Amino acid sequence: MWGGRFTDRPDAIMEEINVSIDVDRHLYAQDIAASKAHAAMLAAQGIITANDAKNIGKGLDTILSEIGAGKFTFKRALEDIHMNVESRLAELIGPAAGRLHTARSRNDQVATDFRLYVRDVLDETDAALASFQRALVDRALEHAETVMPGFTHLQTAQPVTFGHHLMAYVEMAARDRGRFQDARKRLNESPLGAAALAGTSFPIDRHATAKKLGFDRPMANSLDAVSDRDFVLETLSAASICAVHLSRFAEEIVIWTSPLVGLVRLSDKFTTGSSIMPQKRNPDAAELVRAKTGRVIGALNGLLIVMKGLPLAYQKDMQEDKQGAMEGFAALSLAIRAMTGMVRDIVPEQDRMRAAAGEGYATATDLADWLVRTLKMPFRDAHHVTGKIVGLAAKAGVALHELPLKEMQAVEPKISRDALAVLSVESSVKSRTSYGGTAPKNVRAQAKAWLKRLEKE
Length: 457
Ligand code: ARG
What we know:
Elements: H1 12-18, H2 21-24, H3 28-44, H4 50-68, H5 81-93, H6 106-142, E1 147-152, E2 155-161, H7 162-187, E3 189-190, H8 206-212, E4 217-218, H9 222-227, H10 230-257, E5 264-265, H11 284-307, H12 322-345, E6 347-348, H13 350-358, H14 364-375, H15 379-396, H16 405-411, H17 418-421, H18 425-431, H19 440-456
Parallel strand pairs: 3-4
Antiparallel strand pairs: 1-2, 5-6
The structure holds arginine.
């Protein structure tokens, strides 16, 4: 493969550690697209003949359809996708194939291929997140008034609506999409033509190949072009944050479906059983979304560690950039799709939610707010008075609204019957009308605005 300089074959172990075709074969479409752009540019610049370029282009098209149809034999001895394609091209068109590698190196080739690949991942992820948002918004509109307990410290805090809770994830997904879109902007420059590391003596047109491949411009520095993988790191960082969002949601589903909690149900479609315990209904999909997050973060960590000690320019270590990243991207894609499926599937247990929303004196803040509003009490005093009342109710083993008014008045004589009206969970959520608050009319307005936004995309 290396021509004149070598007289012996590589050791079997050398070949085994060096080979990357099992992973980089997934870059075949990008590799061929980049080669076609390169060959056309070489001809346009008078570096190879138009006839050679035509044959190279045709040969590459044949290879593309061979691989697409599963009729291509990948050879491990040829190391990677670049050598496999070039060697097959020589079989197909003869010596002209050898002109394709003029003014380029596998270093700029692989950097170009992987940028194109990650760009596709970014676009697919954005579309998948948009579907996830659509599912959330649909369900939020359906449940804008469904009261559920809101938690802090996993203790019942204040009533919220199920729709409001779902809309929180719409916002998170929007920021995730923004991060992926930002990464795409920085990624979208072409390394092609940087050659091995120093550029080339041939009069190539990097602007032309960049344009042909949908890049905004060529990368400005040849050393940087072949040796950075920050576009993968940035995408994996955004993917990790996104996966953490999904994982938190998945954890909530695991908690909510526990018989101890029972706030939601998943249908048989998103539930598994046990091989020994006939009664079991396990939220495996949610658990696996939680676990896939480990793979995504693992991929990010793995590549950060690969890159951290590498001097410029290309080092073979960088061949290890693809496997973990591809696995991480696949894990995220599956996690997004599984969460979208669960969002569409989930059924809130509305009676249980409503009852749980009122447990644990969840409307105590509403009573304190009433004291502030009606009796003009400073909030700190109202908090103290309400705390005493909650204490009495807890001692009597009753809910706040079940405590006789007389007992409340023993703590604060000015409390009137009106105060009892604010103690229901419905009136509590209805009162939270501040911007971004959980009031059903807010939730409905937010969901409708998002629906419009998503339809316009
Ligand atoms: N298979 C290699 C990779 O993925 C391609 C670049 C090889 N370049 C080299 N100088 N050995 O990184």
